[in-house]
Specification:
Length: 266
């Protein structure tokens, strides 16, 4: 399934290949996209893919009067996942999600991330089951012609606010195209942005590039783009071969809406 360009999934070029209660499969292109803070290749868009396909698998478990919202997202990558992807840039990354464990207050899905014949990572998404909100807006069904914007910065509607040292900041610009069906920034867009600022906060250093190994995100409250809305990260530890950064999405009200921890190795 192709999504219109005026939706977050269409803007990020996500395609749903299969969906059902037992398995959901989707893909996203990654090659050619750069972190706007570091100008280096990035796997941050995988957070968008994982949030979509894992959330979709959980959504199939809802009752008729229920909706789902992401509460946690985690991604684990093999050491050289980026090199595998860059070696065959025309091949998208595919995520296959399945329900994991029984349904409770929330549901958990487990995904495998593959690039061609290579398994490059695993991921989980935990979703809360809530009453159907009264303001759900259906995404446009009219497909727009053309291709998504060329840069990741444009696709995510973010702007560089600060980089350097052991801190990094991206602004989340107000743009309805990156919002989900309840009018807040799509959880996959936000999670991807947290990876961007987290990896940027580690810097490039003299020891070679960092390889993101894990990203863990908690969704605390609704997050909207605005004049003061931003993603910010600070390095907690930069060692010889490993680094850890904390990141958060902060709304116009100054409160953290999402928090994340990124671990990287080199």
């Amino acid at each position: 399934m192709h999504y219109p360009l005026n939706t977050p999934l269409g803007r990020m070029a996500v395609q749903t290949l299969e969906e059902g209660p037992d398995r959901c499969v989707a893909s996203i292109p990654v090659s050619g996209l750069l972190n706007p803070l570091t100008h280096l290749p990035t796997l941050a868009p995988l957070a968008m893919l994982v949030d979509h396909v894992g959330g979709l698998a959980n959504h199939y478990r809802r009752d008729d009067d229920e909706w789902t919202v992401s509460s946690e997202l985690a991604i684990e990558l093999i050491p050289h996942a980026l090199e595998v992807v860059l070696a065959a840039p025309e091949v998208p990354v595919v995520a296959t999600a399945r329900p994991f464990g029984p349904k409770g207050t929330g549901s958990l899905s487990l995904s495998e991330l593959t690039h061609g014949a290579h398994l490059i990572g695993t991921a989980t998404v935990r979703s809360f089951h809530i009453n159907v909100p009264g303001h759900v807006v259906a995404w446009p069904s009219d497909a727009e012609e053309g291709t998504p914007p060329a840069t990741l910065e444009e696709r995510m509607s973010v702007g560089v606010a600060e980089t350097g040292g052991q801190a990094a900041v991206l602004r989340q610009l107000p743009d309805p195209v990156v919002n989900n069906s309840i009018g807040i920034v799509h959880g996959g867009v936000s999670a991807a942005a947290l990876e961007l600022v987290g990896s940027a906060a580690l810097g490039d250093g003299a020891g070679g590039p960092w390889h993101t190994a894990s990203l863990r995100v908690n969704y605390l409250r609704q997050f909207r783009g605005g004049d003061e809305s931003r993603y910010e990260a600070r390095a907690l530890r930069i060692g010889r071969s490993s680094g850890v950064a904390d990141a958060q999405a902060v709304g116009d009200d100054g409160q953290a809406a999402l928090v994340a921890r990124l671990t990287a190795y080199r």
